[in-house]
């Protein structure tokens, strides 16, 4: 079964075409890595898949678990089991982080018609995930991402991921702004997520994250187009030869 | 404090809230009342209440000043306010209820919808709820009685503590202050009297709840608070009113006397019906080493004019003014603060946050006055505005009047918009657009809301959700 099918997707912002006839398939349980230089359209792809309202889909379709979600709102996609870790998680002033986690979790469970953990069970689960992510500072008095360092923000995204339990995750440059240790922790959390029958799209321009998590499929983008699709070996070629050579060949 | 919990379980509760706005009890007793104000009415009110002669004189003197004065120039345009089409006095019940069981059922239902009984059970020290112009429910903790604290309604205070009332009544908000203060002095009815004796410290907030509930009815409650030397207390009141077709006028008066070394906090959440004029006058006289705090939230009303004023009369006295105003479609929230520094080493701090949405206008209007005698005065003003769409507007009108060169003043203002990426971030987590917007707005006002008791904070967060329903941005 396919988790995600993107069919001939063309997207505009204002007058500018930023995705051009993009097609890809992610099978259930598989991990797809999208690579490309800055401005290649890979982060745009993430935002469009999650339903950012600033992007206008001109043509094409996004199918999620067999359902056409092209016109669905971001919150509807979240309820269907999609999640995105943001490249730059937003700092929401005055919104306490942990209560936000619990309330949003409860809301999602309701939208998904699933039972929510009690506040005590939830706290237990949260403490476990906090420990797994090696979050040592006390975040209980902090607001959502406010004043977090780059690494803390990414860990906070991973904590949300662990709590919200999506079936498909877009990791939009989760590896940017992380030091080696944090990268290891985040990589381990990604692997833990991928143990189950979940699917992932990893958007990155670094290869080092692939030392932490295995890709089933590698896609190279340039100027809003997919220029190459391959297996894990494509990532190794990219590592050796760099984007430019592969893009130039196309 | 701005947790999203209330943002998330909105469906049922908010529906109840919506119908609350539209609901009102049959106001048959209004048959007996009349429009406009004249000497006959003022005499009628006074005799109805069996007031002493000096109070009638005070009312008549205020009426005279009212008739002579023009509309205030400080504040928004009031051309659409027809003062002759207002009901200036109405009575909902003839009796005073001692316990909750004695409160009439329809009135109780209204209060229940506003969450009063639950609030009563928890942290509240005492309740005096005003229904129309007559206080119907009143409860005072025995402990306060022993301490000599007086917490009652103004009618009772005038009977049982006449000397105290006479000594202070309209000495802080004199009828000459402006036209609405004069009007208030002429037709005031009901309200709260609070007296905290020397050295008494009360930790729990004292509460009163006001409700305006009759067509075109004016409400002119008078709050008189006396905080004696070294005493400490927190008083909070909230208002909510159903919506009606013709203009209502609310012109209450709040007078607070903060004696030497005393600390007092006055908090209020106001949410008058969206066709009402809320032209309130609130003022505190702050003596040596004393501290006055104002915390206010303003929702509702067609036009609001509210500038709580601290007169820093004694050396080293200080004041804090914290406020939130939400202007939605058709509303003008003209709010701010006034601080008059009259003594050396006085300091004031003003933090105001406003939200404008759906064509609403919010205006910060503030006055900081430093007199020649106020050596080394310090004043900080900070106003932040959040404008939610292109139809809405915000203005900042700070007036600063300094007559002493040693003064240190700072004024900081910011204007922001809802960030689309913030909204998207929250929506990607499963919140809908209105919920995401409400969460961000509640986060924006959190520094002020957190100063309120929990149930008021929750109510204010709900108020924001109500206002945010429908389209954001």
Give an overview of the whole structure:
The complex is a heterodimer of chains A (about 250) and B (about 475). With about 250 residues, chain A is α/β, with parallel strands linked by helices. Chain A has helices at about 40-50, 75-80, 95-110, 120-130, 150-165, 180-195, 230-250, and strands spanning about 1-15, 15-25, 30-35, 55-65, 65-70, 80-85, 170, 200-205, 215-220, 225-230. Chain A has a single domain (about 1-250), classed as Rossmann fold, CATH 3.40.50. Chain A is built from seven helices and ten strands. In chain A, the strands form two sheets. Chain A has a six-stranded mixed sheet with strand order 6-7-8-3-9-10, sandwiched between helices. In chain A, strand 9 (about 215-220) and strand 10 form a beta hairpin. Chain A is globular, with a radius of gyration of 18 Å. The two termini of chain A are about 30 Å apart. The relative contact order of chain A is 0.19. Chain B is of the alpha/beta class. Chain B folds into two domains: about 1-30 and about 420-473, no CATH class; about 35-305, no CATH class. Chain B has helices at about 5-10, 10-20, 40-50, 55-70, 105-115, 115-120, 140-145, 155-160, 160-170, 180-185, 420-425, 435-450, 455-470; strands at about 125-130, 135-140, 150-155, 190-195, 205-210, 220-225, 230-240, 250, 255-260, 265-270, 275-280, 280-285, 290-300, 305, 310, 320-325, 330-340, 345-355, 360-370, 380-385, 395-400, 410-415. In chain B, strands 3, 4, 6, 8, 9, 11, 12, 14, 15, 17, 19 and 21 form a twelve-stranded mixed sheet that branches. In chain B, strand 1 and strand 2 (about 135-140) form a beta hairpin. Chain B is globular and about 65 Å long. The interface of A and B includes residues 53, 77, 92 and 111 of A. Chain A: GO terms for molecular function: ATP binding; ATP hydrolysis activity. Chain A: Belongs to the ABC transporter superfamily. Ycf16 family. Chain A: It comes from Candidatus Falkowbacteria bacterium CG10_big_fil_rev_8_21_14_0_10_37_18. Chain A: It holds the Pfam family ABC_tran. Chain A: InterPro entries: AAA+_ATPase, ABC_transporter-like_ATP-bd, ABC_transporter-like_CS, FeS-cluster_ATPase_SufC, P-loop_NTPase.
